[in-house]
Design a protein that fits this description.
The chain is α/β, with parallel strands linked by helices. It has helices at 7-17, 30-36, 54-65, 81-93, 107-115, 127-141, 152-168, 183-195, 211-218, 241-250, 259-273, 283-289, 311-321, and strands spanning 26-28, 40-44, 74-77, 97-101, 119-122, 144-145, 174-178, 200-206, 253-257, 300-304. It contains 13 helices and ten strands. The strands form two sheets. Strands 1-2-10-7-8-9 form a six-stranded mixed sheet, sandwiched between helices. It has a four-stranded parallel sheet with strand order 5-4-3-6, sandwiched between helices.
């Protein structure tokens, strides 16, 4: 792992993708900071060019490979944000992208994928079922399969999140990150630990999709029989092999949050923080607000992984919670 994923590789990824991404801010969350009597920051990947952090890893991988090495284009399975990152990156370098998404994917993400020029195929109830279709497409088209999280170049691209957090808040001593397949926390966590070995890193999963927690407890990647969460960005029934190996050694704790807790955090972030995340993007804040994670002495940084929320769902939720 050290040979493939180290600070030099992270710096190379940062330089490679910098011209094409937004360098997102780590902003103080004033209201929650006052309520908790502790400095809380939000790393706003919801403001990323595609509305989610997944752009970083995809750009790093495709730019590193180059158009000439992708004559048949690329294909992936995605719950939405990875597909957006891949299709945006494919358009940038001039290759075709095919994205297989679950049938439950919010309409706004499907429309955005098509706007980026991707061929979109709806298949299955969640990410892992969508992924089953990809093997057939690879065989038929010769397209390169680009995984959502189980790839060293993807993880190196995600590490740029950690580099930016440290630049903005070098004194941070607790980093809280949502977990789906594990690529985001692996990259950003590796970078932060390399810069500050004393930092505490906590991952957060939806109660109905806690595959990484189950895997770490079992000592091997575990396939959940089903996943049940509206937070489609972290609805993964089995973590990637590489992220699992990193997370079990890197992450200090993994906690879970309920659907209600994420919904309440979403409303709080919109109403009090003026931040518009998707459900998955609320998980870190939900864990903090509900005492799943306790701050230490220094500042806390929560990763808001994405902002591609379905507007109708958000309007309904906000109306309900008033």
């Amino acid at each position: 792992m050290e040979n493939k994923l180290n600070m030099q590789k992270f710096k190379e990824a940062k330089e490679r993708i910098a011209p094409y991404i937004h360098r997102t801010p780590s902003i103080p969350f004033q209201d929650l900071s006052e309520e908790m009597e502790h400095k809380i920051y939000l790393k706003l990947e919801s403001l990323q060019a595609t509305g989610g952090f997944k752009l970083r890893g995809n750009l790093n991988k495709l730019l590193a490979m180059g158009k000439d090495n992708l004559p048949n284009g690329v294909v992936t399975a995605s719950s939405g944000n990875h597909g957006l990152g891949l299709s945006y990156s494919a358009r940038l370098i001039g290759v075709k992208a095919i994205v297989v998404v679950p049938e439950t994917t919010p309409k706004n993400k499907v429309e955005k994928l098509r706007a980026y020029g991707a061929e979109v195929i709806l298949s299955g109830a969640h990410y892992d079922e969508a992924k089953e279709m990809v093997e057939k497409i690879v065989e038929e088209t010769g397209a390169l399969y680009v995984p959502s999280f189980d790839d060293s170049e993807i993880i190196a691209g995600n590490a740029t999140i950690g580099l930016e957090i440290y630049e903005d808040v070098p004194e941070v001593d607790l980093y809280i990150c949502p977990i789906g397949g594990g690529g985001g926390i692996s990259g950003s966590g590796l970078a932060l630990k390399a810069l500050n070995p004393k930092i505490k890193i906590v991952g957060v999963e939806a109660e109905g999709a806690a595959s990484m927690k189950a895997s770490v407890e079992a000592g091997t990647p575990v396939q959940l029989p089903e996943v049940t969460t509206k937070a489609e960005g972290i609805a993964v029934s089995k973590p990637g092999e590489l992220p699992f190996q990193i997370v079990k050694d890197l992450v200090d704790d993994i906690v879970t949050v309920s659907e209600k807790e994420m919904e309440e955090a979403l409303c709080y972030l919109v109403g009090r923080g003026k931040v518009v995340p998707e459900m998955a993007g609320t998980a870190a804040v939900a864990a903090l607000m509900n005492g799943r994670v306790k701050p230490g002495k220094g500042p806390v940084c929560c990763l808001i992984t994405g902002g591609n929320v379905d507007i109708q769902f958000l309007a309904s939720l906000l109306s309900e919670k008033r």
